[in-house]
Specification:
Keywords: DNA-binding, Phosphoprotein, Transcription, Transcription regulation
Protein name: Response regulator
Helix content: 40-55%
Pfam family, one: Response_reg
Structural class: alpha/beta
Strand content: 5-15%
CATH class of the largest domain: Alpha Beta
GO biological process, one term: regulation of DNA-templated transcription
Number of strands: 5
Number of helices: 11
Distance between the termini: 42 Å
CATH architecture of the largest domain: 3-Layer(aba) Sandwich
GO molecular function: DNA binding
Number of domains: 2
CATH superfamily of the largest domain: Response regulator
Order of helices and strands: EHEHEHEHEHHHHHHH
CATH topology of the largest domain: Rossmann fold
């Protein structure tokens, strides 16, 4: 199956670079390029991509607003393009529904793996990166008033698994910590995602912080 990708960045050279890197993969096709968020929303509607690689800072409609519109209106996953050390809008983009992020200096092979992973429904935050990203930006967010109520739908074991996911543990590490099989850990994560009606693992982590289940730095 060909993975359809839309590129959204105000710099033509950046878009050309990503297009060139993705062209090396037989199962990836770039179906459009947008220079701003508004164009990205329009192209997402007309080209129906599986994955959008989205810059945050663009003229007019920014990447956060565009991300929120795209994930609300259609079954499409958005990956934020950023420089982690300087862009403090990443967490807002994740809250808007993005499935993860890539730095613009990503290696070619990693880019292609990332696109494939997100298209398959996985979140694009490695366990180690998850904690760095969320803790950095969660400090500045207020608790969501209904987040705790939503967690009430989980079993005690599922709640424990969500806490470990939010702490940055992989399924394998969760399995080792709880003395269960990796498949069982994966099943618990999947059930929590379904019960809480979140898009993916990233949104699960965000909800854990918003509810106060996990506190930054603890």
């Amino acid at each position: 199956m060909t993975i359809r990708v839309l590129l959204a960045d105000d710099q033509a050279l950046v878009r050309a670079g990503f297009r060139s890197l993705l062209a090396r993969s037989r199962d990836v096709a770039v179906v459009g390029e947008a220079a701003d968020g508004a164009e990205a929303v329009r192209l997402a509607a007309s080209t129906r991509p599986d994955v959008v690689l989205m810059d945050i800072r663009m003229p007019g409609t920014d990447g956060i607003t565009a991300t929120r519109s795209i994930v609300t209106d259609r079954d499409c996953r958005v990956v934020i393009l950023t420089t982690f050390d300087t862009d403090e809008h990443v967490f807002a983009a994740l809250r808007a529904g993005a499935s993860g992020f890539l730095t613009k200096d990503v290696e070619p092979a990693e880019l292609r793996r990332a696109v494939a992973a997100v298209a398959a429904g996985d979140a694009l935050l490695s366990p180690g990166v998850t904690r760095r990203v969320i803790e950095r930006f969660a400090r500045r967010q207020d608790l969501a008033p209904d987040a705790g109520e939503r967690l009430a739908a989980l079993t005690t074991r599922e709640l424990e698994v969500v806490r470990l996911v939010a702490l940055g543990l992989s399924n394998g590490e969760i399995a080792e910590r709880l003395v269960i099989s990796p498949l069982t850990a994966k099943t618990h994560v999947a059930r929590a995602i379904a019960k809480l009606d979140v898009r993916d693992r990233v949104q699960l982590v965000i909800l854990a912080y918003e509810s106060g289940l996990v506190r930054p730095g603890r």
